## 1
Amino acid sequence: MTFFSSLKTRLRVIGLAEGVSYLLLLFIAVPLKRLGGYPEAVEVLGPIHGLLFILYVLIVIQAKIEYGWSLGKLAMALVASILPGGTFYADHTFFRHLPANPD
């Protein structure tokens, strides 16, 4: 059994990575581009965040199917990905209380 074999672990790790990448993009890379004239910051961090965002959405959809979430829980998890710090809130209030693997 590997570290990422648990759906809960994958959801939490990717969610936290997506949240960190989003905050770095918003508060570091974009100001560096707009105010500092360094577009490379967004050119590097943008695709990384984009990949993590796609992985997060796919894992949330998998969790909805396997855990049998309601549409409301699915919507909460997806909305969390577009709010700065939202995935941290979702992890703290919801994801960490999930069983390791769905029944």
Note: Residues 7-96 form one domain.
## 2
Amino acid sequence: MAQHWQELIPIDRYLVTSNGLLHEYDRKVLTFLYQPLIGSTCLSLYMTLWAELEENKLWSESSTHHLLMNLLSVNLKDIYEARLSLEGIGLLKTYVKSDETGRSFIYELYPPLNPEQFFLDGMLNIYLYRKIGKNHFARLKRFFSIAKKPLDEDYLEVTRAFQDVFASATPGSLQYMQEHAEDLGAESNQEFIGRQDQKPIQIDTNTFDFELLMAGLNESLVPPKALTKKVKDVISNLAFLYGISPIEMKNFILGAINEKDEIDIEDLRKGARDWYQFENYDQLPSLINRTQPAVHQVQVTEPKTQEEKLIRYYETTPPIVIFKELSGGVEPSAANLKILEEIMIKYKLPPGVVNVLIEVVLRKTDMKFTKGFVESIASHWARLKIKTVKEAMEAARKEERGFQESKKTGKSTKQKPIRTEVLPDWFDDSGKASVKAETKDQNTELEAKKRAIEEKLKAFRK
């Protein structure tokens, strides 16, 4: 995956457009509902691009990214990363064109969800609730709500209908309009200024194994027609939001079937949410990058060496998968998951860096994952501002070299026995060690891995 400077340089030009008119009320929605999820830099980028649009116009003048860097007082990498976040949350679409004059971009701004859409979204509202807490969430709901004013029952509606007020056109007028029908629409190279409602975030349904789900539901006599497109969209979102497998999803669907053999979407959401909170000590999921952000991936070309393949693997694999594989296929406990989530949020470590941390901790502590030891490494790496897998691996090597040197130069009297630690293969600076974690499908048993590591350590010590 290319780094940011391969995707974007300061002299690249850009234009700003919008998918319809942006309203003043959108600023409040972006500030109070979106900013807690995407951060102030992302909001600043969106607002700056918006400001470049003239009033009631849909296109800006051409500018360079160097100007954008000066306006925001941030570097190009931060702009690129903020752009990706805006794209991911549905506020921006990006188009690029390269020719002999250079590279140019079009940034198309999309309006945020309206408050009702946001608070009933089923994903973004859950992330916001976890981020700001119950009291502030309730306050925001009040801020974006208004009291209903029901009409007095004594009032009768006397509104006239269209046909009661207006008469239909005469045949002659209709003939005239048919002859000039092409004059009714916008010009061929123009479009009317307007706005369409923003669509909620939708996870691709191809990411969920519906065939496996259907196989389980067939045994329970759930009719296939119950899985409508709307229901499938909700299932995909819930599976992403709460990390639910097809086998687990079957139970929630069975609990949401009503007397008409239809799946009640609200019951389905509630069942999934209650299950997740029960499994995670009444907590809700947080919005974090599941894999290493592209801006912090360092592999430029196709990986060739074993270490490059391992780096790519750590960059493209979620921490929970790495934890499970290093643990011999054992699912991480709720306490382990909580520790992982906390270090990613509290210390802002990217997922790829967390993957390296997981391996270092498990190897050095005989497969234990204690919070104190994890946080000591996480806080250290956060202070070093480590963002890439390669930087994390080098930091681990450097710390191990320092530890080995201190043992050599330390006093030999009254020393306590030191347990020999099983270290990851990539701790070998020579680069000759064979790295086993090349692909996600590797199913080597844990004992075989340990024996292989011990043999390599013997060769390395010689």
Note: Residues 412-419, 430-443 have pLDDT under 50 and may be disordered.
## 3
Amino acid sequence: MSALRTLDDLLAEGVSGRRVLVRADLNVPLDKQTGAITDDGRIRAVLPTLGALVEAGAKVVVCSHLGRPKGAPDPQFSLGPVAGRLGELLGAPVHFATDTVGDSARSTVADLADGQVALLENLRFNAGETSKDEAERGAFADQLAAFGDAYVDDAFGAVHRKHASVFDVPARLPHVAGRLVLREVEVLSKLTGDPERPYVVVLGGSKVSDKLAVIEALLPTVDRLLIGGGMCFTFLKAQGLEVGTSLLEKDMVDTCRNLLERSGGKIMLPVDVVVADAFAPDAAHDTVRVDGIPSHRLGLDVGPETVAGFSAALSQAKTIFWNGPMGVFEMPAFAAGTRGIAEAITKADAFSVVGGGDSAAAVRALGLDESSFGHISTGGGASLEYLEGKTLPGIAALEN
């Protein structure tokens, strides 16, 4: 990987009075009933970059996406609540533009004083942001780039997307990596380089198909690969076990069988699981061995023996990567597996990386001390694609 120009390089050149367009990842979860932010972790993650620019006297123009609107304004995906929370965290009002590149955005940016911050409305309200048509995407990038004299990408959670604000804008402005993106790349490059061993990876989540590429990429390099979450049932089925009504990808059973055969014993699977009568927080449930899953019940968490076995493997590790919960942690009855593995990671004498997405959400939802992990990534999909060895469009654009 080429050396990236950094925020410090930009600050050294001087940004006082200059407009700096910052691509952030402010895609925070919102309460469906109230619209309130339920986890502001991604907002906090961009504060070091924004704070440095504000202190240096830049006119800071922040842009981000939120959710998956269909290329047109949709009130439920407005960044309005984010502007309020960002202002609270920065300790100064954030000026909010009610469109992305229209009259409100132009006037909001034009009125900025040195050291002030503006936030544009959701980038995905404009079809040009995610368009596969290069001309349409480029036209939108031209409009965005007009708001900046320089560009900072601090949206690691979006660097695996070939979107206008991530891939096309850097080609139009002097560009650097923000503090967050730089830290993410530094950390993940440790895992793909020469990690201290034993190197143990924990993968969870629902689908094997979502993680197949990273499993294929990691198997030759890891010492142990611990598999939990909904995806474990396809592996158990590959061993000829009954999995009841648990989540199962039938078309992946042969693939899982092949992975197990090729793994040389590196893959560890659950030995017990928590099964329930239904996918519901109050469903009747108990713990069974994996060779005793009733045909009418479904697995929603790994069991205590599995936690103990996985924890023993983690206690020997010097490098740990974790992506994906062990069960349905959002329901208290099925959160013990995820909590147990997370706590085991914090106790290990190892450099630990939490691979974003649901794993990062679980750390916060379960009230665990974030500082006891080596690094909590802000990009689930981006971190996995980095470990797979894929070229990430946003990083490639910064290298050019």
Note: Residues 179-192 form the longest helix (14 residues).
## 4
Amino acid sequence: MPRKNRRQSEARRPTSGAQDPSLIDGPDGPVRVRRIPGSGAEKTYRCPGCDLEIQPGTPHVVAWADDGDGDDRRHWHTGCWNARSRRQPGRWR
């Protein structure tokens, strides 16, 4: 009888809500980043990258200083977050 190679069961990750925050190096020190899926986005936020609203149901990124208490959290469009190093504050292009 042939042997079946089966993957051992892993702990299941939650399918809804925000993913675990990760730590990245920012220009002002370490920054915690959490990606929010569209199903977890329930409120309207203002993106600091483009100064436009992030509508409910839109996947986006939340970032805050690692040494902070979370009061400095900012919600970013994913594209604005990815382009933050190429864009100067207050510049549209």
Note: The beta strands are 22-26, 29-36, 45-46, 53-54, 60-65, 74-77.
